[in-house]
Specification:
Number of domains: 1
Radius of gyration: 15 Å
Number of strands: 2
Helix content: 40-55%
Strand content: 5-15%
Strand order of the largest sheet: 1-2
Number of helices: 4
Oligomer: single chain
Shape: globular
Length: about 80
Amino acid sequence: MVLARGLVATGVRAVRAGDPGPLVAHQLSNMACFRAVRDGLMAQAVDVRTARLTTPIERLSALPWHVREELATLPPGGRSRTCG
């Protein structure tokens, strides 16, 4: 739950800063999706940012680093101080 909150907050911050996100070719996105569905976490995956093969575990392991700034702002336990 904390990681998901960090991902959303990081994305919102990027959009508010005017970041349009990565430009990914439709074919590359389809290939990445196909491999993810076919292979799951046990084989190789496509990193759509670099168009290279990687492992799903490597990509998942990078998520906390990607959202580190937002995770650092969370109160202890990762719960929001306010609701909504």
